[in-house]
Protein: TonB-dependent receptor
Organism: Desulfobotulus pelophilus
Amino acid sequence: MKLTLNTALAVCSLFLLLHTPVFAGNEPARVLEDMVITASKRESSLDEFAGSISVKDGQFLMDHDIKDISGLTRFIPNVYFKKANSGDAIVTRGISTIDTSLFSPMGLYINDVSYPLAFMQNQLLTDIKRVEVLRGPQGTLYGRNSESGVINVVLEEPGDEIRASASLSAGNYASWNGHASVSGPVMEDSLFLGLSVTGRKSDGFITNEVTGKDNVADEESSSARGTLRWAAGDRFELVTILDGTYRDRGISTLRFEDGPYASGRHKVRSDEKDRTDEKETGGVVKMSWQGDQALFTSITSNRRFTKDFLHDFDRTPVKLGTTDMHIDQDNRSQEFRAASSGNTHHSWLIGLFGYTEDIDTSIALNHVSPLMAKNRVTDSKHEGFAVFGQLTYQITERLKLTGGLRGEYASATGTQTFTSNLGPVTFDEKLSSTEWLPMVAASYVLADNLTAYATCARGWLAGGYNYFSANSQESFGYDPEYTINYEAGIKTNFFDRRLKADLSVFYIDIDDKQIREEVPGGGPGVWRFSNAAKAHSKGIELDVTALPLGNLEVFTSIGLASTEIDTWQGTTDGTPFDYSGNSLPWAPEFTWNVGVGYYMNNGFYGIADVSGAGKQYFDAANTLRDDSHALVNLKLGYALPHMDISFYCHNLLDEKYATKKVKNMQGFTMVEDGEPLTFGLTLSWRL
């Protein structure tokens, strides 16, 4: 790992953490409570979950100034948020996805509703009760299939207690963030209403050296959510949620690292005003009925997402043309499930899930030369249904066995019309797959504070379409990829639950890995999505939280994920290339976070942490890479019973790092830079 001042600070912090006394002296003792979670779709203890899971509650999110999913992932071992204008993605245990792919191998659920598109996954986190992050396939628990894991966001629901909160932040780069929410009873004990609104605005940190403007990566976004909850007695409940989000962003972020148009960090040289706007709306109706032995649940949802994207395709001051892209996605889904309730020697879950999804896209290269102009218009329809379930049986007082199975049928039909100077050509393809995804797990209580577990599960990521770079029938569609996941771990707590440590190791076999590669003989910049032969990922995860003193908390999370391509013969720059032995792209070799929080009895508090990611490659040839980086973050505040004022600082030492690298058609390297030093003040109020 490259030695930097950030890295030195991180190592010192970790040394102090590991050498902090774990006895509380004379200060009041605090303990780490065993959380009640719903990751398994029924209430259970966090310590009893036989798998790798990290849970952060709403207070943790507020304490660490976490506003969205990308900020959350800094605190989760082996979970990395790939943030790029070409498409976001959540990378877990080295399982990445194709750059520009619309779908992510990591599932995201908010109040039981799936957010399937990768562009949807950096959701704002407001009114959060807790976030549960499960690593490994979760197809036997969740309605929509997920290959590498699930982020399960549980919202605060309105009830008889009146709750209200508001916050306002102001920071550098003319940044503003605001949030307000209120919830409470409309009719006592039966009808409850919750409302929330959120907005943010920033000029961004990118300057265009051609136009002189310093707001070419600005952002304006707003979102709102309304929740109506009806409780009819002790057994029946109906929850309806409507939400909407609008984002308007400048996307002039790609700069040249070399070549005649090279520029420095956070400086671009483009002749166009690059913009994107996104609109997202959703509605869900959730009904549940508590029977004598089981909880029955129905979830009906609809989510609509549109994106318009315009940018200078050559990223130079020369007026050559633009790329104009449009995405329209409409998803409808229905889930029925039943889960056992009560304390028995066995617990079970069974569910049915179905969805239909329309995805229409267009991408046009508007070149000054008609010979270079291209246009692709794609219409696709995706459908699927699944039956899934798990059964856990307590063999002895200490030993539990779990078995699960998912059966899924998925189909898609797609048609693309590709228009070039040679005229239009249309190609279509139908995809279908029937999959059986089993899992088994065992857990054994070695002592009252020590539990060991082992799991084995099969993962699957559906095939799809190359919406943005196909130019033939052969380069339009691609097949599913498959994984076999092996995992073992221990969950521990010591010193009267003032230290909790979870450790896991894993090995993942990956077959038919979905990749983006050059089309042989197609020339530079002509890509296809296909399936490489084989790869694997292996690693270790450690998650530790300790309360060594009454008001002091220390925490660390460390994830190591070593990926390797076993067999893949492809083409690089028109030349045959053997990728075997290389690392998978978009997969950092490790992620980590270490920090400390101190909360004084008079209301003052301070939180500091260092988070980092190891070396990663942005291409399968491993010619484009970013070295390891470490970001120092700080928050100082004063809390009153109903108010809180705080100062925050992210990337305190202004560490330089890249979130994306790619080569253009001339072989020059373009870079998207990570965020610089940002700071600001936040004023919060709560009832």
